[in-house]
Write a structure and sequence with these properties.
mainly beta, 6-stranded mixed beta sheet, 1 helix, globular
Length: 825
């Protein structure tokens, strides 16, 4: 039976003749007119009802209920109950099977105050216990109240529930301390100041419900996980994730992800004291208004190989009043000979025409971040910003804007940044922080092996001395690097002779020092082609290609708190060999990956998304199932997570064409053609995007007069602008290297590429800039200074002030590769 509390029904008045027509056949049947008794109505398998902020009760199959108190929901929500185990996690075989499993929907809902879930207890059940599970966590025994044939559990989330009887050990079963042991635990939270946080709903240590709270003042929250696990539990991992439910799109942020921590393992017949892990502090203020779900996941593997992940959710409703106090943002301008437009937080513009103090017209509420950049440079000058970002906890008056009198931004000339003549230096990559501090990493030989080297550039001091960051006795190649806004960096590369294979190694730069190299993964196959990105917290996520014995697979691992995931998980579809993986890591810790992979004998473009907890299912990105040629995809994203992917693709009968697709609002838009197409091949596509969504795509086309470099720009969700050829003044080219592109916050772009003049004997490096102020591309500028050797690989980055830095490797007279750099400022 089921019920949703009904409204009173009106009484019906029927004529006597109609009553007789209805009752007479029934009476005749009861006297022997039919031998078949009437069938009882079928028990429904699924019930739904709309419940609003006033609360209500939904009763489903077998009397299973959800009792929702007033205020648990903000709006009308369809609540469902079904007798179904479809999609539920696998049960632990040590425990008896339930008579029924009940599904509660919508999955992933978070109630502002806990609801009561009433699960029917089958008649005759001995020692009944209630168990709950969710879409991203396994079955966990929950504290329940037994009364009237029901087990009642209070929770602020749900997905599935069941009641099972007491666990027992078969007479012939070997001793096993894991049998009949149910891991349990909870996460508690305290605030500083303590009176800022108020418990508004039920909290219990063993319900997977950390409780519901209201935050009334800015505070720091400390979460503590206390869990008991199986006696044989190994490979323990704790993950802490925050979901901001009222942000659109919803924000998911991984705050903690650590392996091998000391949670207590249980003893047969009892749980004992739980092990404790203090999780990172979470600071919340009026900037975080709305509901936050802080979820703690504890995972481990039992001695018999059974794996499970347990879950605890705390709901925090941030209701902190907007501070009535405000802070001004300002500083001092020096060296100015014209008018410079300064910009705070991408919107608040201030035109300054003389040296001296300045203050932005719009004050900021206390506790709000600020970020001062140059919106428009003065004519004939370049201004840079120091002390330009931080948090407005008091009036800010130390932002320094220094303008250099004389010429506007220009390339400063090629500089050799390493002078090691033992062997070649090659494969350089550069990345920069918002203030223009940059890192270059590259591989360099020592006469026996190739090592990984790094050098750091500062705007005031230029390039520092290069230093070796991996001198292992085996070749090291394919370096990549990422830098966060604070100037911390993580480099990753491939190292040979890791147990007779090629594996991944990484090192971190913090507090002015490179740390020791760490193994990123421990898999059996050869690894190659790593890529890396960093989120706003400084955590890094890497992606790479690795053979699993059958195929080349795409794998990913995360660095947080100084430790890498132990192996790295496979994130591709597993249908054939994969290659050309790229990753975009977002500020909140989520990520998007693209790669190419053989599917049914055809090369295709694939994608997958990491939501802060785990990777979803890999899916196709391109629409061409007859692909014959496929170029490596590239990714770029803005501050809100809108993403662009570009790639080149052709068939056996058509030329290779460059395509683009935009990801926004949780879905991919239609593929758009960027290049000319027709009978001419287009390839080597790359893309960059700034925080506001302005994008620049570049690629190469093979046309009548040789190879050409092209670009198109797009603002936000608008249409792509016209394609522009960047190398027109250079004439025909017999060979051009892959173009690279970077952008600054204002939307200015820099593109670099190598170019061989027709009939020439080496490739030179050229660069072109697009300036928002003029809306046009500059003529290509020669960047290298060696006229007898060819440029091989180049890399470019830009800072918040519109300065660009490019590094490349180039042959010298003695045919040895060196690392060079040039700076546009």
């Amino acid at each position: 039976m089921f019920a949703v509390t009904p409204s009173p029904r009106p009484r019906l008045s029927l004529p006597l003749w109609l009553i007789a027509c209805v009752l007479l056949p029934a009476l005749l049947g009861a006297c022997g007119g039919s031998s078949n008794p009437p069938e009882a109505p079928a028990e429904p398998e699924r019930v739904t009802a709309v419940i609003g902020p006033a609360g209500g009760t939904v009763t489903g199959p077998d009397g299973a209920q959800v009792v929702i108190p007033p205020g648990a929901l903000r709006g009308n929500t369809t609540i469902g109950i079904a007798r179904s185990s479809a999609g539920a996690p696998v049960r632990d075989a040590f425990w008896p099977a339930p008579a029924a499993t009940y599904e509660f929907t919508p999955h992933g809902i978070a109630f502002e105050t806990p609801v009561t879930i009433r699960l029917p207890v089958p008649a005759g059940t001995t020692g009944p216990t209630a168990w709950m599970a969710s879409t991203d966590a396994d079955w966990q025994e929950s504290e329940a109240t037994l009364a009237g044939g029901f087990a009642s559990v209070r929770r602020n989330t749900f997905s599935w529930g069941m009641v099972i009887g007491a666990c027992s050990t078969p007479a012939n079963a070997p001793p096993n301390p894991d049998r009949c042991f149910s891991p349990r635990g909870h996460t508690s939270v305290v605030a500083n100041p303590g009176n800022a946080l108020t418990l508004t709903g039920y909290s219990n240590a063993h319900t997977s419900s950390g409780g519901s709270y209201r935050l009334d003042a800015a505070a720091t929250l400390t979460f503590t996980a206390v869990y008991n696990l199986w006696p044989s539990c190994a490979s323990v991992r704790v993950t802490m994730v925050r979901r901001q439910l009222d942000r659109h799109p919803q924000v998911v942020e991984t705050l903690y992800d650590q392996a091998n921590i000391g949670l207590t393992q249980g003893a047969h017949g009892g749980r004992g004291a739980g092990g404790t892990t203090v999780l990172p502090v979470l600071s919340l203020s009026h900037l975080d208004q709305g509901r936050h779900v802080v979820a703690t996941y504890v995972a481990c593997q039992r001695g018999d190989g059974f794996q499970a992940r347990y879950y605890d959710a705390t709901v925090i409703n941030v209701a902190v009043p907007v501070p009535t106090t405000t802070q001004t943002i300002g500083g001092n301008v020096s060296g100015l000979a014209g008018t410079v437009v300064l910009r705070n937080n991408g919107a608040d513009d201030l035109a300054v025409s003389a040296d001296g103090p300045f203050t932005f017209p719009t004050p900021l509420a206390t506790g709000v971040p600020f970020n001062v950049t140059v919106g428009t440079q003065p004519a004939g000058q370049t201004c840079t910003v120091q002390n330009g970002s931080g948090t407005a906890n008091a009036d800010v008056n130390n932002v320094a804007v220094n303008c250099s009198a004389g010429s506007a931004q220009a390339w400063q000339g090629a500089t050799l940044i390493e002078t090691n003549d033992l062997a070649r230096a090659f494969n350089p990559v550069v990345a920069t922080d918002s203030q223009g501090n940059a890192f270059a990493v590259w591989a360099q030989g020592n006469g026996s092996f190739d090592n990984i080297w790094a050098a750091r550039y500062t705007p005031g001091g230029g390039w520092g001395a290069p230093q070796v960051i991996d001198d292992h006795s085996g070749n090291a190649t394919e370096p990549q690097i990422a830098v966060d806004s604070a100037g911390n960096a993580v480099a990753i590369w491939v190292r040979e002779n890791i147990v007779s294979r090629r594996g991944l190694v990484a090192a971190s730069y913090t507090a002015g020092t490179w740390g020791a190299p760490q193994d990123v993964e421990g898999n059996a196959g050869h690894a190659r082609a790593p890529q890396i990105g960093m989120d706003a917290s400084g955590a890094a996520r890497a992606i790479w290609i690795q053979h699993d014995g059958n195929f080349e697979r795409v794998r990913s691992a995360r660095l947080q708190g100084g430790s890498w995931d132990s192996t790295g998980s496979s994130i591709d579809g597993g249908t054939g060999d994969a290659s050309d993986a790229q990753i975009q890591v977002f500020a909140n810790g989520s990520a998007l990956a693209v790669w190419t992979q053989i599917s049914a004998g055809v090369p295709r473009v694939w994608h997958n998304r990491f939501n802060g907890v785990g990777w979803s299912t890999a899916d196709l990105l391109d629409d061409n199932n007859t692909s014959f040629s496929l170029g490596a995809p590239a990714l770029a994203a803005d501050a809100t997570g809108n993403t662009l992917a570009v790639w080149s693709q052709g068939t056996a009968t058509t030329s290779s064409t460059v395509y683009a697709r935009r990801y926004a609002g949780g879905t991919w838009g239609a593929a758009e053609v960027l290049s000319g197409g027709g009978t001419d091949n287009s390839a080597r596509a790359r893309v960059a995007m700034n925080a506001n969504g302005t994008a620049t795509a570049v690629w190469q086309e093979s046309l009548a007069d040789g190879l050409q470099t092209w670009a198109r720009r797009r603002v936000g969700a608008g249409a792509w602008g016209a394609a522009v050829r960047l190398d027109t003044p250079l004439g025909a080219s017999d060979s051009e290297g892959e173009p690279q592109v970077a952008m600054d916050p204002a939307g200015n772009a820099t593109v670099v590429w190598s170019h061989t003049l027709a009939g020439g004997n080496h490739r030179d490096l050229y660069g072109s800039h697009h300036r928002v102020a003029t809306g046009s591309w500059s003529a290509p500028a020669l960047l290298d200074a060696v006229n007898t050797g060819g440029v091989n690989r180049c890399s470019v980055a830009m800072d918040a002030n519109g300065n660009a830095i490019v590094v490349w490797d180039q042959d010298t007279v003695n045919a040895r590769l060196d690392i060079w750099a040039n700076v546009f400022r």
